[in-house]
Amino acid sequence: MTAPAKPLPHSPSPGDAPGSAGDALHRPVIAWFDAHARDLPWRREDAGPWGVMVSEFMLQQTPVSRVLPVYEQWLARWPRPADLAKEAPGEAVRAWGRLGYPRRALRLHGAAVAITERHGGDVPTEHAQLLALPGIGEYTAAAVASFAYGQRHAVLDTNVRRVFARAVTGVQYPPNATTAAERKLARALLPEEEHTASRWAAASMELGALVCTARNEACERCPIAAQCAWLAAGKPAHEGPARRGQTYAGTDRQVRGKLLAVLREAVAPVPQATLDRVWDEPVQRARALDGLVADGLVEPLRGGLYRLPLT
């Protein structure tokens, strides 16, 4: 078994002070980002904090190419949280379309209601206030605070975790779930100055999305290839627990998606018989429908009718 490579002498380790060894990574990565960052609508100044928040909900486990059209339609229809809060939650599910993981739509609607009721319709600026909103966890709170308000927070998505795992700890892939050691490392790497920290958060995420990808990484285009512990060690293969795959065909997720597709297109409540036609296997179909009801994505009515939720 090949031991993971140790960090290179000039690469930061979890114990390094911010602003010291980390500078060797900050400068080239941020310079690369300045030259190569994609022009995405949520990065533009006119997106505002609400646009950033919407993008963070939509981008979870979903590629940018699928998010872009839905994001544009969403912001055109609901340019402020209060606009979405006025609508029934089922309308958020309907507008979510085929992005997948539709509970995110309900959570975003719940956050819009809370922002309207608690913060006068403005996305709060404080990390603790963001974290207190329904449906917002540590990652989303840190991302909105950093990308919308330029604050200093460690923003750890899958792309960032992969960059840190390779460049600093010398392994191909991060653990399946974020660990305390990863959080400690991210804090150690965080620049002291707020603006630089927020740029670093966006830049390291973009590097993982475009260059240090999960497969077919482009090390020849990486601005920190010379400092990468994994590359220096000969790119040793992953030796940890098996990475989780995302299957879809034949799963309850697929059945749920088919059931929701019928309800999104409907202008009136849908009878059970119509839903029964979307999937032949009755036990799995019933389980998927029961799950949608339990998650608040579908509302059952008398007479065997179903619709998207109104409350």
Automatic annotation (TrEMBL):
Keywords: 4Fe-4S, DNA damage, DNA repair, Glycosidase, Hydrolase, Iron, Iron-sulfur, Metal-binding. It catalyses: Hydrolyzes free adenine bases from 7,8-dihydro-8-oxoguanine:adenine mismatched double-stranded DNA, leaving an apurinic site. The keyword Lipid metabolism does not apply. GO terms for biological process: base-excision repair; mismatch repair. Pfam families: EndIII_4Fe-2S, HHH, HhH-GPD. Residues 1-21 are annotated as: Disordered. One of its GO terms (molecular function) is purine-specific mismatch base pair DNA N-glycosylase activity. Its EC number is 3.2.2.31. Residues 58-210 form the HhH-GPD domain. PROSITE patterns: ENDONUCLEASE_III_2 (PS01155). Residues 1-12 have a biased composition (Pro residues). Its cofactor is [4Fe-4S] cluster. SUPFAM superfamilies: DNA-glycosylase. The keyword Hydrolase applies. Belongs to the Nth/MutY family. This is Adenine DNA glycosylase. It comes from Streptomyces alfalfae.
